[in-house]
């Protein structure tokens, strides 16, 4: 049984903290007493079992551009309140927010041995990077699920505080890749034969040791000399001709674009812009070369540093874009590049 | 995306600011950049200095494409 109220510190980003949108992504860590933003529904779900004593807010841009510094500032702001538990997020499918939540979990669980709860979409990069360091509840992609997730967070918080055993099956968390030893009623050989019989009979069975999926592609041999190579440039930073003719979405992009660079030596705000909704567009709109470095590549083409720059570039918006979609775009782009005799590619990301 | 380009047999360099994400998605040649909203620039610099910064980052990426690697390398 819960003895006293669970002391909780909540970590959220600048957006949920009400500081501002992408223009405030460089917001440095600050604390507020009590709950803020999504903390309100979580607190309501916790009722009398717990209390959010403080909320730490940090901009996603600041955190990801200064991971070590941000981690240590946030961790010390949290630890000061001596919480029993930390909640980070939910981050849903916001990549930089997910990475920040995961990094906070890593710092807090390792240095202070305080359990951390987060909640994310399984494709959030924060999951793969930090799943060992937090109990991450599985969510959908969008923050519209906040009201659904809040009671799950509250329930998990109580279970952790009451020292229940937390497993993916019982509590809906994403598997952390941690194995625990225990004595099974039946010996291994018997269980293996049972599984084999089920498999042979086309009946459902469950492996006791799912194989991890490592999808790694070995690096290709280098190009001998870029001076003789035809090079293509691609970006997930959403640089598109002004007006976004293909209407590539600012998040969860459903397509990519292929645009000509013929006759261009520089990208300017008159003819190009960014369609990306996941970072402050001011700098890329003022000078799109900051994301797609055409100006210097043309220079290098002219002075012979590279053989040739491909006269088309490819762009999509890497902002909550599903992994499957990204794979399909790149497959189709790669086929195109092969057909055009491209020998090397540069991909820029924001 | 970077992995599928590589899989197709085209050596590719990923220029990005959040290196841990690049490592997770499986890029092999990685060049860290300046900041999320301006990976290849810095609005605090003069136009000339900013272009020189961009030039040096792109040169680094070109050297990465000319370098043999056996796994993930952050240049």
Write the layout of secondary structure elements.
The complex is a heterodimer of chains A (350) and B (75).
Chain A: E1 6-13, E2 30-33, H1 39-46, E3 50-58, H2 60-65, H3 67-79, E4 85-92, H4 95-111, E5 116-120, H5 125-130, E6 135-138, H6 146-161, H7 168-171, H8 188-200, E7 230-235, E8 239-241, E9 257-260, E10 272-274, H9 282-286, H10 294-302, E11 308-315, H11 323-339, E12 344-348
Parallel strand pairs in A: 1-3, 1-4, 4-5, 5-6, 7-11, 7-12
Antiparallel strand pairs in A: 2-3, 8-10, 9-11
Chain B: H1 2-7, E1 12-16, H2 19-25, E2 29-32, H3 47-65, E3 73-74
Structural account:
- The complex is a heterodimer of chains A (350) and B (75).
- Chain A has 350 residues and is of the alpha/beta class.
- Chain A has helices at 39-46, 60-65, 67-79, 95-111, 125-130, 146-161, 168-171, 188-200, 282-286, 294-302, 323-339, and strands at residues 6-13, 30-33, 50-58, 85-92, 116-120, 135-138, 230-235, 239-241, 257-260, 272-274, 308-315, 344-348.
- In chain A, the strands form 3 sheets. A 6-stranded mixed beta sheet of chain A has the order 2-3-1-4-5-6, sandwiched between helices. A 4-stranded mixed beta sheet of chain A has the order 9-11-7-12, covered by helices on one side.
- In chain A, helix 4 links the parallel strand 4 and strand 5.
- Chain A is globular and about 70 Å long.
- Chain A starts with 5 loop residues before the first strand and ends with a strand.
- In chain A, 45% of the residues are buried.
- The mean pLDDT of chain A is 94.
- Chain B has 75 residues and is of the alpha/beta class.
- Chain B has one domain.
- Chain B has helices at residues 2-7, 19-25, 47-65; strands at residues 12-16, 29-32, 73-74.
- Chain B has a 3-stranded parallel beta sheet with strand order 1-2-3, with helices on both faces.
- The two termini of chain B are 19 Å apart.
- The mean pLDDT of chain B is 95.
- Strand 12 (344-348) of chain A pairs parallel with strand 1 (12-16) of chain B.
């Amino acid at each position: 049984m819960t003895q006293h109220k669970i002391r909780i510190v909540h970590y959220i980003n600048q957006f949920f903290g009400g500081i501002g949108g992408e223009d405030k992504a460089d917001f440095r860590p600050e604390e507020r007493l009590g709950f803020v933003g999504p903390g309100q529904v979580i607190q309501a779900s916790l009722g009398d079992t717990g209390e959010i004593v403080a909320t730490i807010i940090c901009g996603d841009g600041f955190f990801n551009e200064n991971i070590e510094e941000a981690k240590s500032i946030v961790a010390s702001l949290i630890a000061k309140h001596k919480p029993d538990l930390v909640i980070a997020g939910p981050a849903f499918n916001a990549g930089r927010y997910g990475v920040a939540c995961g990094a906070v979990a890593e710092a807090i669980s390792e240095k202070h041995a305080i359990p951390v709860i987060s909640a994310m979409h399984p494709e959030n990069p924060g999951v793969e990077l930090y799943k060992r360091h937090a109990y991450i509840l599985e969510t959908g992609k969008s923050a519209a699920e906040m009201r659904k997730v809040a009671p799950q967070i509250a329930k998990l918080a109580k279970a952790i505080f009451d020292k229940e055993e937390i497993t993916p099956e019982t509590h809906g968390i994403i598997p952390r890749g941690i194995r625990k030893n225990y004595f099974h009623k039946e010996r291994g050989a018997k269980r293996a034969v049972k599984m084999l019989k089920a498999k042979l009979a086309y009946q459902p069975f469950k492996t006791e040791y799912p194989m991890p999926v490592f999808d790694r592609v070995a690096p290709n041999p280098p190009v001998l000399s870029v001076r003789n190579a035809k090079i293509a440039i691609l970006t997930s930073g959403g640089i598109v001709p002004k007006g976004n003719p293909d209407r590539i979405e600012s998040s969860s992009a459903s397509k990519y674009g292929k645009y000509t660079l013929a006759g261009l030596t520089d990208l300017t705000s008159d003819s190009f812009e960014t369609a990306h909704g996941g970072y402050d567009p001011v700098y890329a709109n003022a000078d799109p070369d900051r994301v797609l470095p055409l100006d210097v590549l043309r220079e290098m083409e002219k002075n012979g540093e590279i053989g040739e720059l491909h006269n088309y570039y490819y762009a999509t918006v890497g902002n909550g874009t599903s992994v499957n979609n990204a794979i399909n775009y790149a497959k189709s782009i790669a086929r195109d590049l092969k057909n055009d005799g491209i020998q090397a590619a540069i991909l820029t990301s924001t | 995306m970077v992995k599928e380009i590589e899989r197709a047999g085209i050596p590719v360099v990923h220029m990005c600011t959040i290196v841990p994400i690049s490592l997770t998605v499986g890029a092999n040649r990685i060049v860290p950049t300046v900041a999320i909203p301006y990976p290849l620039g810095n609005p605090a610099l003069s136009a000339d200095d900013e272009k020189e910064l961009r030039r040096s980052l792109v040169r680094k990426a070109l050297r990465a494409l000319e370098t043999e690697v056996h796994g993930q390398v952050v240049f």
